[in-house]
Amino acid sequence: MLLKGDYELEQRSLLSLETDDKLFGKNNFALNELTVHKKDSASMMTIHTYINDEYLNSYWADGLILSTPTGSTAYSLSCGGPILIPQSKSFVINPIAPHNLSARPIIVSDDVEIKLRIEGREEEFLATLDSRTRTINNATELKVVKSKFCINLVKFEGQNFYNTIRNKLLWGMDKRN
To answer: Is 109 helix (H, G, I), strand (E, B) or coil?
Structure first.
């Protein structure tokens, strides 16, 4: 089907991470998520979160996930986050093991700038873009925006998001039937 050209291209958004020290160099984008989390310690961290320079929350947790719609079915989902359809034009902000039970995932528009400032007992933390990890210190400010470009995924006839998610999550399946 690929060789015949029997497919459609589906555009997926990415997020871009901006830091003063160019933490990930030119490879500063992610299809799934940016995650900040503790490095070596059992103690929690505090992630001060701002949307377009407006204070949202200070998450006291093991970390925080900022996911794209594509990434909403990955790490964020396993931490209790919602599933977003690929065309939703949103990001999910999802705390990892938050100390406060009232800290819940939130969906924000993907046309905002999200700033993260981290503090904790330790000096160093981890920042991960998809599977690439870097060590950051508590003076690092992370700015996340929607990338200026998208990635194209090949979609063959008969494939759609709803069928895929229903089959992978076994929705409607009942062993009794």
So the answer is: strand
